[in-house]
Specification:
The protein is about 60% helix and about 10% strand. The protein is built from ten helices and three strands, in the order αβαβααααβαααα. Helix 1 runs antiparallel to helix 4 and helix 5 crosses helix 6.
């Protein structure tokens, strides 16, 4: 009679799966980056101010990358951090968590500033297009700055999961494996034997 072999591998919670968490961070960072390529502000000026620069009825369209220039760079930083978390060691994951978290705070702050004062955020684009700042200007915001704030907040929450989730991840680096107790025949012993062999010593 054949017996059933039970797996001794611990069950990893869904929220702690490396592939899921890294993918979530990457998707959120790309969502923020994608939002900055869209129109965040629509500026309408007096007919006398429009000239040839803003001659259409749609007004002056201001992209997120111009309304909040820092958001684009911070999204790329978070994206790189998310990808690095997949291969980083234990100590490096703490550093990456802090970097992604700071990037997320910066994203929320910068995008929130645009929502709080859209006129100030649009002044640079207005001056560049018309040579005039201030005057009779009306600025309307689109949904994209709000989406950037939401994605940035979720990005920060995801970053906080990296360290506790990584406790369930298999060791992939020499530094993580070295933390395994020696003498068990595990990864730490194999790495130690390899290091001794490369130095010319006989590990046996």
């Amino acid at each position: 009679m054949s017996g059933t072999v039970k797996s001794t591998s611990p069950v990893v919670p869904r929220w702690a799966r490396k592939s899921s968490l890294v993918l979530l961070i990457v998707v959120l960072a790309l969502a923020v980056f994608g939002a900055t390529t869209q129109t965040w502000l629509t500026v309408r000026l007096d007919a006398g101010q429009l000239g040839q620069a803003v001659a259409n009825r749609d007004g002056l369209q201001v992209q997120g990358s111009k309304a909040a220039t820092a958001v684009t760079a911070l999204a790329l930083v978070a994206l790189a951090g998310g990808l690095a978390a997949a291969i980083a060691g234990k100590v490096a994951r703490w550093v990456i968590t802090v970097i992604i978290l700071l990037a997320a705070v910066g994203i929320v702050t910068a995008a929130g500033t645009v929502l709080a004062d859209p006129l100030a955020a649009a002044q640079g684009s207005i001056a560049a297009a018309t040579g005039i700042s201030g005057s009779n200007v009306s600025v309307a915001t689109t949904v994209f700055p709000l989406l950037a704030v939401i994605a940035g907040a979720l990005l920060g929450l995801s970053a906080l999961l990296v360290v506790p989730a990584s406790r369930h991840w298999k060791s992939r680096t020499k530094y993580d494996a070295a933390a395994v107790k020696a003498g068990t025949g595990g990864p730490a012993d194999e790495i130690d034997s390899w290091d001794r062999l490369t130095r010319g010593d006989d590990p046996t």
